[in-house]
Design goal:
This protein is mainly beta. It is built from two helices and 30 strands. The strands form five sheets. It has a twelve-stranded parallel sheet with strand order 1-3-5-7-9-11-13-15-17-19-21-23, with no helix packed on it. α1 packs across α2.
Amino acid sequence: VLNGPGTATGDSGNAGTAGLAATNAGVANFAGNTTGQTGNSGDGGLASTDAGVLNGTGTATGDSGNAGTAGLAATNAGIANLAGNTTGQTNNSGDGGLASTDAGVLNGPGTATGDSGNAGTAGLAATNAGIANLAGNTTGQTDNSGDSGATSTDVGFLNGAGATTGDNRNAGPLGFAATNATVLNGSDSTTGQSDSPAAAVAPLTTDNVAALNGADSSTGDSAGGTGNALTAGNLAVLNAADSSTGNAGDGSVSGPTVSSLNTAVLNDGSTGSSGSDGTDGAVGGDVGVLNPSGATTGSGTVDVNVTTEPSDSGPVTADVTHDNGVPGNTAVDANVDLGSVTTALGDTVTNVTNNGGDTTTNGGDTTNIDNAQASGGGGGSVAIGGFSGTYTEDWRAYCARVFRDRKHYTRKVWDRCWRLTHREDKKAPRQRQSQR
């Protein structure tokens, strides 16, 4: 009714057996429109209903180009779409499911609403709605070689040019119930599970919701990032351009064994594990909020190295470095100067009485008597900053040997001798002044 020149309403060009019941309505469409089941080589289903209303030139409403057997019931509605739109199941080589419902409304030129290019068997029920999207949008399950589950629901609303809503390019089985919703995302954004390997487990549910994200943003697990999980979900809201939310695998089967959930809000980076990270455990997930450009949430590493060397910078010093976003990799190199955290020894040790391990205090300094033994009328040792000598030995003589043959002593011993000698040198002028 009231269609432009070159329009066609009704099933046509199908090689397979027609369905039992077919209903087609084309109303007020511009030139070159088609409404109905067209160009299918597989057999038709039980019933098909196609309605095209107020569509631009060259639009198509109805299942077309499918090699597999059609589903039992197919319903397609294309309303007020601009030129070159398609609404319906198209170019699938796998068999259809029980029922498919596709609605394309007020979309820009070149948009597609409906499952397309799938080699795997369709789910029992597939529902796709593309509404008010700009040019080149796709809403539906596309280019999957793995079989679908029981149900798939894809909704794309008010998205920028070239946005994609729906699971795509998966070799592994799709979720028993797969849901993808995209609202007000920028151009070329993607929402859905993608590129899963054939060895991935069949998930029970996969849910991806993306709203108000920037251009080229992605929401959904990819390349087997949740290939082990029974349930997977990703929520992305108000993230910047080129942000990503979901586990990005490396093509192998990875991810937690039960459930994965990632949530990203107001980020300018990535949220979710990458590679084969996060393969251990039953439940996994990441939350990213207000992360700056280049930030990444997910699995990271922390390496800590601790040494005990003398230092002029204080008892404890640390050098911390971090790279690869959040959590990324953190390295900590810490030094603890054990000598500087104790009170320095006095200049001389006098009036020492050996009673097998006593502690003697002279002028506020404490000297420990280590492993003292009464042999030959005395003995034992005095601990002076990490080295020992007999009671009768002057520390100056000991340090003189240290300075002469440094390579046979530790840096700690050498440093202690240097401080003792330096302190004594500073005292000498004051002693000479007092004697005058």
